[in-house]
Amino acid sequence: MQKNEIFTGKVIDYTHDGLGIVKIDNFPIFIEDVIEGEEVEFKIIKLKKNLGYGKALKIIEKSSNRVEGIPKTSGANLVHMSYEEQLRFKTKKVQNVMNKTLGQNSVEVLETLGMKDGYHYRNKSVIPVQKVDNEVKMGYYKPRSHDVVNIEKCFIQYDEHNKLMNYTRDLIAEMNLSIYDEKTHKGAIRHIMFRTNSNKTETMVGIIVNEKFPGLDEFVTKITEFDSRIVSVMLNINNKKTNVIFGDKTENLYGKDFITDTLGGIEFKISLRSFYQVNPIQTEVLYSKALELAKLNQDDTIIDAYCGIGTISLFAAQKVKKVYGIEIVEAAVLDARENAKNNNITNAEFLLGKSEDVIKDLISKDVQIDAVIVDPPRKGCEESFLKDLASMGIEKIVYVSCNPATLARDMEIMRGLGYKLGAVQPVDMFPGTYHVEAVSLLVKE
């Protein structure tokens, strides 16, 4: 087998990131944009010791789960699959990682909870801007490069953002505005960001720049005249040579410095840099499932160990006596406190610090904790934190995960610490992509 050699084979499975697997004499080849069951002709593009990568040249036998005509955009690598096939892939992905880490069928994995339709769900779009041969480009980065691909329509972001993106691109070109060049570190506009609330009544525009530029005021006036839903325009200055999107300095150019969204009957103020789930419909599904698994009572006291701006905490506060939200980022704690105040929620208290330290402090003050909700970043929980939860006698842990691999790893740790593992419920927060969230209940035996 050599690079550029052409083969034909049947797709028998998927990798964890949705590539199709074809085996040639038991040697696995990973191929983009193919579907399990399809017969494909492909060319070898890369060979490693134990696997290779191929490029599909022709689909000889198409799957009924193939969807045609939706262009790939950044991260949306499963849009060639029907939504039913995407959900099947995600359930299997979670099952595979659980089997690998915890042992075959040692934990039940339920069917992935999906949306009615997996398109136009993202309420936040961060779009890079480039100028190439006098053409203004806005869209997404070509895989493994820093070259921006122009797009007219992204099928996972709000359609309102597509219209704004196309108008903004034309406006930047028409006004001949300064665009940042990362090679020379000169020029102004780096990214344009749009955030819109769930009922599509308020939009924030974020302009991320290397430096202020001539024509900025007129640019803001024209954008706000184009769409009356725009209630906020923010300028963020990032003059560092970096891939990080935001800089430290933000100023308000128009309207308010936030938009307001309602989730599960609770109102949240969202600023330019607030962490807020990008799929509000599925966020309600995920958090409702987490609280359902916790089987909470009106007299319970619970901890939300990675509380962010208080989303899960304020959901839970409606069902229990007291919620303590813990967060290491001070700005998020301040947002959470303001969100509680704005919703007249008085039984949620937000504390700054590391979860294990704050929980130990609460227990030392004789606070009786009935359950802990953890919603960690992709790297999962620190093992020391999980051991602390066990040694403190926490009976119920509801684990909300954005990475099934670290969920499985942490469940294995908790099993070793005497916890019974509940069923894992995957939730599709990001249709069209290979990412999947999951939630499970761990109970001290």
What features would you describe in this structure?
A seven-stranded mixed beta sheet has the order 9-8-7-10-11-12-13. Strands 18-17-16-19-20-22-21 form a seven-stranded mixed beta sheet, sandwiched between helices. The model has no long low-confidence stretch (mean pLDDT 95). It folds into three domains: 61 residues, OB fold (Dihydrolipoamide Acetyltransferase, E2P); 199 residues, Rossmann fold, CATH 3.40.50; 140 residues, OB fold (Dihydrolipoamide Acetyltransferase, E2P) (Beta Barrel). The protein is globular and about 65 Å long. With 445 residues, it is α/β, with parallel strands linked by helices. The relative contact order is 0.11. The chain contains nine helices and 22 strands.
Strand order of the largest sheet: 9-8-7-10-11-12-13
CATH homologous superfamily of the largest domain? Vaccinia Virus protein VP39
Helix content: 25-40%
The first-to-last residue Cα distance is: 53 Å
Gross geometry: globular
Beta-strand content bin: 25-35%
The count of helical stretches stands at 9
State the CATH topology of the largest domain. Answer: Rossmann fold
Identify low-pLDDT runs.
none
Classify the oligomer.
single chain
Structural class: alpha/beta
Brief overview:
By secondary structure, the chain is an alpha/beta fold.
Characteristic key phrases:
OB fold (Dihydrolipoamide Acetyltransferase, E2P); alpha/beta; 445 residues; 7-stranded mixed sheet; Rossmann fold
